Amino acid sequence: MADSTFWIAALTGGTAVLASWVTSRGNTRAARIQADTAARAQQSERRRESRRTAYLDLIEHAHQNVEVYWEVSAAQRTADAERRAAALEELVERELDQYGKLRRRVRVVELEGPPAAATAANALQRATGPFHRALRDMRSDSSADPEAVRRFEAAYRPFWAALTDFVDAARDALREE
């Protein structure tokens, strides 16, 4: 009887040690999985916030570009040719400065991704070209070439469409995260 008690105690003790070891491994594995999941979620949130910041910065700057374009539209309606030429000269410099800033923001969006947002950002940047070319022609002709003015005014609709497309692509990219 004493022999069987020893073996029962040994078996019970061994089972307890084995159960403890299995539980410990399971807890360790669960903790590792939980830590990995938390790290992935945190990384995803950081990427989402970084993208959101880049997208908002580009959208805000696009609106600043439009403010310059509106000033150009107002200046070209000035009756005094000398004042119009001076205003357009100053606005050309501002427009070039704004374009450089816009281009840098487009590069950040390209870096942040995803490809659909980057493509839409590049299309937005290209939509500034007609404004620039028309403004250059308006500036070079002191009588405010009516064709250049018409081309400048016609550039608004494609620009707004490109901005809307970018906003849609940015929204979709942030929803996918």
Question: Which properties best describe this structure?
Answer:
177 residues; mainly alpha; 6 helices
Write the layout of secondary structure elements.
Blueprint: H1 2-76, H2 81-112, H3 115-126, H4 129-140, H5 146-154, H6 156-176
Helix pairs in contact: 1-2, 1-6, 2-3, 2-4, 3-6, 4-5
Summarize it:
The chain is mainly α and 177 residues long. It is built from 6 helices and no strands.
Give an overview of the whole structure.
The protein is mostly helical. The protein has six helices and no strands. The longest helix is centred in the first third of the chain and has 75 residues. It is rod-shaped and about 120 Å long. The mean pLDDT is 87.
Q: What is the number of beta strands?
A: 0
List the uncertain runs.
Answer: none
Number of helices: 6
Strand content of the residues, in percent?
under 5%
Oligomer category? single chain
Percentage of residues in helical conformation? over 70%
User: Any idea what the shape is?
Assistant: rod-shaped
Averaged pLDDT: 87
Element string (H = helix, E = strand): HHHHHH
What is the radius of gyration? Answer: 32 Å
Largest sheet: none
**Distance separating the two termini:** 67 Å
From the helix content, strand content and strand pairing, which structural class follows? mainly alpha
